[in-house]
Amino acid sequence: MHQVLRSRAHRLSRKTPSFFSTLINNCLSLESLFSLKLIHAQLTKLGLCNTNTFLGNRCLDLYSKFGTFEDAIRTFDDISHKNVFSWNIYMRVFINFDDIKGARKVFDEMPERDVVSWNSIIAGYYSRGFHDCALDLFSKMQTTGVIPSEYTYSIVLSFVQSVHHGKEIHCNMIRSGVDFSCVIIGNSLIDMYSKHGHMDYAFGVFLNMEELDVISWNSLLAGCSKSGYKEMAYSHFCIMSTTNYLPDAFTVSSVLTACSTIRDLRKGENILSLSIKAGFLSNSIVSSAAIDMFSKCESLDTSIRIFKEIDIWDSAVCNSMISNYANHRLEANAMQIFALSFNKNVRPTEFTLSSVVSCAAVFLAAVQGTQLHSLVVKLGFEHDLVVSSSLVEMYSKYGSIDAAKIIFDEMEVKDLISWNTMISGLACTGKTVESLNLFEELLKTGLQPDEVTLSAVLSACNRGQLIDRAMDVLYSMDKEYGVKPTDGHFTSVVEMMIQAGKLNESTKVLEAMPYGPNGYICALILGVYGIQEDLEFTERVAERLMKLEPMSSLPYMVLGKAYEVRGRWESLARLKKAMNNRNITKMTGCSWIGIKSHSFLFKENEVVHHGGEDVYSTLRLLMHDIEDEAYI
């Protein structure tokens, strides 16, 4: 037996390095760590791994891809004659194992650096979100005399923070004599200009490229879609269809997104037909974009049919369906899809949980909302910015403002949406002072408030009847914060003035409204002053509300009451006839209550509901007892 092993070892010792290189390549194709270790052990035994730098580098490269960190370190240490390729692979080991500090230490210790060394460390910093460090290294790279490659520029252009900086890099490329016939460079420039909304520059690069590929078209179409040029995205997609470049799944998803934004159902249907013919609908990105497009074009039934027919259960498709149900106020359906996706082992994303938590605030009882919060913690999303903001909103709507404040205070990073949610939550629960104080804290952070922030502030003033403070905010919005007052801002101020009995004083604010009093204001005036004020005023306000909201029953009800009080029976008869001709019926109010795991809906004047007969039977018995005891 020993003789056989010695014979095999002798035969292996006579094999050339190319033979071992072939064996190592086989390990790569099979991704077999066990086979790699066997070959590495044999190379070490024969002394080839130490003396043959090429074979040592090949083993190190494979360990960096599917081996362990310790194996890679030992292999690097065993290479006697290390070259720049050895160091580059060694540095990539640290990057792959998410140790950017260790990678930078290796980079600083390298005896020699080539363009690959610089590209690797720049890409490493970029992939971990350290964009400033990556840009700093890019600047140092040029001062050391190393000429950036096309790949260097494509990395740097992907994370420039302003178009001004992107233009500087573009000029630097021109001065350095970069070959712009390279399609990678052209695509990177198109993508950079598109991301920053400068489509004129993106088109300039596109039209001057000597060679195009489908990525060039995709970058241009995605840029048009994201920059607001939705019609242009569709028209250039049609142009692309006349060329030799066949659209791929990314192309189709970008154009479907553009169609959903412009709410053009016909164009969306054309793209869907193309997707079905090309077999793209089985792609989850395309199918989710199609579902989203039909939903936003008010064709939810088609979205549901697509969802059922493709029968794809992944996060992208499920997220689209959950979001669409939620946007159409079908929270129960959204929760059902979430439950089904969870049963099918589709791991929820932060977007999924954010949508579901938002639904819970409307549809589920507080106990079930708390259970969702527990799920968020269990899945490790409690520190996600979007999910945390949704939790703050959920607890605010439940009235558990203290729980919402705890989550808000624990958020490591707060964006403007988080601040807006908390300020609005405090305002809605009647904590006026706390809401306004939080607004002052927001201003100290340097974040610029938007129209949503100021709506929340005016809501807080409304709750506390701080009319003077609200007027100051309204008339200083444009000057101090650069936010032009919207219809909603004026409405909030007028509402508090009307509720305070200052209808005449609100005239000045009403006149400043861009489109005059809206339906809500008219309804509010009718509700507060409709019967008591002079009839001519009531009729004017009611007529405006009839124009703004033709199917609303409120103006007819208030006018009818006003006519009845004044004994104008002919006018009342004409009003009722007008209501019948227009098929206007009194809107039925409703409320719901959550008990354990069930939600019960109660409609106004409804006798038949879950347990309704028992409830009314009990009430009748109580009334009999009260009458017998002479309480009435």
Helices and strands, with pairings:
Layout (H helix, E strand, L loop, with lengths): L1 H12 L3 H14 L2 H14 L1 H4 L1 H14 L2 H10 L5 H13 L3 H10 L5 H13 L3 H13 L6 H8 L5 H13 L7 H13 L3 H10 L5 H13 L3 H12 L7 H13 L3 H14 L5 H13 L3 H11 L4 H13 L3 H13 L6 H14 L2 H13 L6 H14 L2 H10 L5 H13 L3 H14 L5 H14 L2 H15 L5 H13 L7 H6 L6 H11 L5 H14 L5 H13 L2 H13 L8 E6 L2 E6 L8 H17 L4
Antiparallel strand pairs: 1-2
Helix pairs in contact: 2-3, 2-5, 3-5, 5-6, 5-7, 6-7, 7-8, 7-9, 8-9, 9-10, 9-11, 11-13, 13-14, 13-15, 14-15, 15-16, 15-17, 16-17, 17-18, 17-19, 18-19, 19-20, 19-21, 20-21, 21-22, 21-23, 22-23, 23-24, 23-25, 24-25, 25-26, 25-27, 26-27, 27-28, 27-29, 28-29, 29-30, 29-31, 30-31, 31-33, ...
Overview of the molecule:
The protein is mostly helical. Among the domains are: 518-586; 588-632, no CATH class. The chain is built from 37 helices and 2 strands. The chain has a two-stranded antiparallel sheet with strand order 1-2. α13 packs antiparallel against α14 and α29 (451-464) runs parallel beside α31.
Short descriptors:
two-stranded antiparallel ribbon, elongated, disordered N terminus
Compact summary:
About 70% of the residues lie in helices and about 0% in strands. The protein has about 625 residues and is mainly alpha-helical.
Q: What's the alpha carbon Rg, rounded to whole Å?
A: 34 Å
| Distinct helical segment count | 37
* Overall number of strands: 2
Main pleated sheet: 2 strands, antiparallel
What does the average pLDDT come to? 79
Strands across the major sheet, in which order? 1-2
Structural class: mainly alpha
- Percentage of residues in helical conformation: over 70%
- Span from first to last CA? 111 Å
Content of β-strand? under 5%
**Shape verdict:** elongated
Q: Runs with pLDDT <50, length 5+?
A: 1-15
Oligomer: single chain
